[in-house]
Amino acid sequence: MSLSTTIVAYLLLFTVGGFGFVLLNIVLGSLLRPKNGHEEKLEIYECGEPTIGSSFVQFDLRFYVVALLFIIFDVEVAFFFPWAVVFGKSTQLAQSDVSVIVQTTDGHEALGSAYRGLMTELGLPTDEASLLSGKDTAEREANIKSAATKLVWTCIADIGVFFAVLLVGFAYVWKRGDLDWVRSISGHARAKDRSEANWHESATVVSNS
């Protein structure tokens, strides 16, 4: 069984197990719990307190802003997973204890199992024919290690650019005051002064034209 087939099998097993566990609890709950519904039991439960007033009230807009900012700055965590895989595997590949070419018992050369596994997990071809066709084994190993080291530094540069873009967006949101639950009066005053100055400037341009 290949590595990709094994991974898919594990994912399917995890999915079936999760859905089966949830479905089993729902079925058992419907069979075991008493079914004696009445008017009070069917009322909306809210923290054990009696319902006061209507539930159709205007929700504070600031909660939406906080939720949107959380989604925007938290969803980037998903981008760390592929980067972490490539960075980790390339770091392992660049280590000296991972042999690219090994000697078999009959004296022939073959690709090391660790190298083959790392290349498969990275989704890269092993290129076995070209690696085993040269004469200098040390030179061929050095070329692979050099390429892996370059990939490591590329990953570091990539995550640096990612964090730079993220920090620019964070600084912009912070500068606007969107992270403040209650915006400062001085900020409102500066915004009001800027809007009045822009209005006077626009009025002057219109009157001169």
Automatic annotation (TrEMBL):
It holds the Pfam family Oxidored_q4. It is found in: Cell membrane; Membrane. Its EC number is 7.1.1.-. Signal peptide: none annotated. One of its GO terms (cellular component) is NADH dehydrogenase complex. The chain crosses the membrane at residues 7-32, 63-86, 151-174. It catalyses: a quinone + NADH + 5 H(+)(in) = a quinol + NAD(+) + 4 H(+)(out). GO terms for molecular function: NADH dehydrogenase (ubiquinone) activity; quinone binding. It comes from the Bacteria. InterPro entries: NADH_UbQ/plastoQ_OxRdtase_su3 (IPR000440), NDAH_ubi_oxred_su3_sf (IPR038430). Keywords: Membrane, NAD, Quinone, Transmembrane, Transmembrane helix, Transport. It is a multi-pass membrane protein. Belongs to the complex I subunit 3 family. NDH-1 shuttles electrons from NADH, via FMN and iron-sulfur (Fe-S) centers, to quinones in the respiratory chain. This is NADH-quinone oxidoreductase subunit. It comes from Blastopirellula marina. The lineage of its organism: Bacteria, Pseudomonadati, Planctomycetota, Planctomycetia, Pirellulales.
